[in-house]
Amino acid sequence: MNSLISYISSFIKRAGSYIFLATLVSRVFSFLASWIALQLLQPKPLGNVLYAWNFIVFLTPLVGLGLHQSYIRYGALLKSDEEKKQLLNYIIRNGIIGSVIMTLLVLVFSYLYSFQTTEINNYLYILSLVFVPIFLFETIKVRARLEHQNKRFALLEITYNVILIVAVFSLSFYGKTTGYAFSFVLTPLLTCLFFYQQLFANTTTNQKPHFVDFEFWKYGFFGGLSNVVTLLLFAIDILLIGAILKDPEQVTIYRYLTLIPFSLLFLPRVFITTDFVAFTEKIGNANYIRKYIKGYLLLFTLISLLICLTFYFSGIFFLALFDASFTKYNQNFLILTVGICGILMLRGLYGNLLSSIGQVKVNFYITSVAIIVNYIANQQLIPLYGIKGAAITTACLMWMTGVATLVCFHFLYKKFLLSLK
Q1: Burial of 111 (0-12, 13-18, 19+ CB in 10 A)
Q2: SS3 for 175-200, per residue?
Q3: Judging by beta carbons within 10 Å of its beta carbon (0-12, 13-18, 19+), is residue 95 exposed, middle or buried?
Q4: Model-level pTM greater than 0.85?
Q5: C-alpha angle with apex 226: 221 to 228, nearest 5 degrees?
Q6: For residue 254, which of 52, 73, 95, 339 sits 20 to 30 Å off, Cα-Cα?
């Protein structure tokens, strides 16, 4: 119990409560922005914008070729403020170039590939401009975390979502769907303008930092790829249900069944966002890391038990909030809930610890294997059990990937500690 109290106390001291509050506010504001768009725009053209935006979202983890992810890991290991400033300038220069390349690639793709309607191509032209602003915004957030300014990080998140609501309302009202598409580009851009000073750092030299090498670039790129395949892992169930069952209603039901369990994934993100820099700075201290793991596991074991008990006794109530007909899928809902606990307890922690020791590529490999297993298993289980088969596959893979990250971390961490001697 002392470990749990100490863990929560450290989380609060690092302004974790601000990040928690900012995350909740951001989710509410994001939902409100979506609701506003639905009220102001016609469903069909709105759907075309969202289709194009989902394509862009799939690529956003790779903005700046993932350099902002290298920035947080390598920046946390640096002791000198001068080196951190040099790294920031290097990240900004090269990340902008990488993001511009992504924009050009999407523009070329949009020009060459014909979607079912030219409107989607036109929206992709607009939305391709978002990569540079998103990269700069992510970099500003990383700098706040590296400087242990989690309050500033929380302010960044809230500012972004306030601007999003204003942009969505005003641009959708006056510019309809085109304005709505531009709101996605202008929101991170305007947020960066509010915090533009965080994009600059005065240094004695603008030369490439001496520690930047191929491994530095590879870390960021694999970090981006890992996030891309994670998005695909969560999306593949929907795609396979639609392809195998050919029943849009079952796709809709499954999407709503996953809505509540998947929304709980913000919990480990809040803690890891708060603590990643702190435990990366001390990653060579085995006692500290063991203490951190113990505190995290105690907390999220209790949270997972509470979630399972709540949904076991009240799952039908929550499903009825969507539609009374959904209650007959309560068992599927519980299966997904148990699966989510595998991420809450294991993968959320050990996946980030792997990143902290520079083994982000292992996360990519584990998730890639999971996608293959998901495809093979669902090809067998969905025809037999319908969406319940998809729920079983997803739940099992959540625990399997969690256990895989646990085993890989403990094995690789021993090697990492030996490399420090």
Answers
A1: exposed
A2: HHHHHHHHHHHHHHHHHHHHCHHHHC
A3: buried
A4: yes
A5: 95
A6: 52
Q: Which of 323, 330, 341 is nearest to 394 (CA)?
A: 341
In a 3-state reduction of DSSP, which class is residue 255? helix
Name residue 293's amino acid. I
Find the length of the chain: 421
**Domain ranges, ordered by start, for the chain:** 15-199, 219-420
pLDDT tens readout for residues 2-38: 778 888 888 888 888 899 999 999 888 888 988 888 8
Phi, psi of 139 (to 5 degrees): -65, -40
* Residue 411 CB neighbour total at 10 angstroms: 12
* Residue 161 to residue 170: CA distance in whole angstroms: 14
DSSP of 351-410: HHHHHHTT-HHHHHHHHHHHHHHHHHHHHHHHHHHTHHHHHHHHHHHHHHHHHHHHHHHH
Scanning the structure block, which residue is given the tokens 């506003």?
A: 36
The structure tokens 């769907």 sit at 177
How does pLDDT run across 45-64, given as a tens digit for each residue?
Answer: 888 888 888 889 889 999 99
